[in-house]
Amino acid sequence: MFTKKRILPATLLLSLIVLCSVVYWFAMQNKWLIADYHKQHEMSVEQDKFEDMFLYIQSAESAVRGFAGSGNPRFMAGYPSFIDSIRSNFRQLQKFQDLDHSSIDPVLFSTMGQLVKDKIVFTGQVKLLCEKNDFAAAISLISTERGLLLTDSILTVHQAANDLMLHSLGQSKRTFNFENNKYYNIAYWGIITSLLFIAVVVFLLSREIKRVQRISKEMVLQKEHLGITLKSIGEGLITTGNDGNIIYMNPAAEHLTGWTNREAKYKPLQIVYDVIHEETGLPFENIVNKILQNGRRVELQNHTILRSKNGVNRVINNGGSPLMDLEGTVLGAVLIFNDITDRKKNEEKVKKAVERYEILSRATSDTIWDWDIIQDTILYNDNITQMFGYQKGEIENGSSWWKNNLHPDDYENISVVLDETFKNMSQTIQFEYRYRCADHSYKNILDRAYVAYNAGGAPVRMIGAMQDITKEKEHERHIAIAITDAQEKERRELGMELHDNVNQLLGATLLYMGVAIKSGNVGKEENKILKNCVDYINEAINELRNLSHRLTPYSKEEVSLKNIIEILIEPIQKANLFEIDLHVDTFENDVVDSDMQTNLYRIVQEQLTNILKHAHATEVKIFVRLTKEAIKLNIADNGKGFDMLTLQDGIGLENIKTRAEMFSGKCEIKSSPGNGCELMVELPLKTVRLKSSEKMLLTPNLS
Predict the structure, then answer these.
(1) Is 76 in the same domain as 106?
(2) How much is the pTM?
């Protein structure tokens, strides 16, 4: 407990330490000021040397100018000493540069040095001409551009260097004065602060004495509460002295060890707390001994079996901490241990469940995955290497790796499906996508997953299975091709039947009616009726011809896809249902085969039917473009549009998507209420397609 005898010396000692610290700090700052003062002195010396060198340069120049102008050699009496002084001062300035004590920029100093050397050489040349009595040449040399430029350059460099040195010296003096004043202020305030600190500490310590007295009373109550708490906690607790003998055991420890507190008190810990290793059965090193030897906390240890006095063995985990006084001396240790027998059994059950999961994952060909959404880690079973060809070292456990291997055209759709699933808190989800293999090819995947959510409704985990349905999708594609080919064959046969047989019958009927009209054996009224029948039969023949063309658009190779589409839209344009802007790139049939052209024609036919039924459009644009890799179809209208989120594919749109997939192509639709609809179909030119039973030729039957 604190006493006044302890508080007063402690306060005085603390105050003395503060004062000594201030004095020591002040002394150290004085050293810095002295060093800075020496630096200012060096800067002044450097400036003096620089000015002396410049004066000697001017003296040398005046000497040769006087000699050249007057011819009197007396002007040159001091020239050698001027040159020596110039070189001597330059060497002194060079030392400042070498010691990195100069305030002149190294580049500027290098320029100045070169100018000084050039000036010495130049004055030497003038001197040599004067000594040869060629004073006119000497004066001419002095007046040359070189001489004037050299003089001006030296003056410019001198001014720049002088300004720089004056600025550095002034800045250093201002810094010195500022720091000097600051240090004195800090020292004075430090002393005042330390005195105030003494007063505050004395006041606080007087209050602390009262607080300690109050705490002493509270500690008595806390001791009682602590005793109740120790008896109530479920973990076993044993405290020992620094000799390792037991001082106290709570009721939980009594139950786990089979010893009472009275029986165990003052006994060595190892007698009461008998523990062995769970796997080896060998005795454990006494955990309290570790605490007493190292004076540090020992974290929870597992794989420990406690053998109680009554012969019951329990699996426990245990840990402990040292008990110290205020000076940090270890007085003993506290040991805490807990019965985890039931938890251990549960862990064994979980381990067996994991083993069964591993066996199950090996029994199926699907890739099983487990996504921890919070930690963003995905674990896969070994089937992922067989399904996609990746080595284990190539597989990353984050969701970004999975997303990066999705086909780019499927990524947005999968993101929408996942967002909707999480938003609606759906627990099951199923979706299809294309996934990239190690050889950069793609497989069709059917993914079924289960989603787990936390109490707040946020998704925390997904477990699913990736099934390879590439063969099934290819089989479906072949079936769709076969069905389409059968439909095209049926349409062609029906069209030919209408065109060849029905039209011939109608043509024959017209012939007989014409004969009857020309025979004159019919009355006036009957003749009028026969002419009306002729008109109706001609109209029927035209309708049958148009129907035949729609059912069988191709029979010759001379007519292009553009011509066939023009025949398709001709009735629409005649009826003024809406304006159609058509553009089709020109290409040869060996570039885009007849099957693909037939497919494009049917897609245009299907979409125009959709527009007629639902769009209420006034303008339609149809573009067919050919690139090196694909042929692209774009059909856009300015109709009423629809909401993509509530779109349910009808038979028409489903047929269009199926036809695109038959040629390994892709189909995309963009629309919104009031903004029309745009259909985009892209078919790759290098498509491996099941050969149809019969190739259709690109020419309508116009006969």
Answers:
(1) yes
(2) 0.37
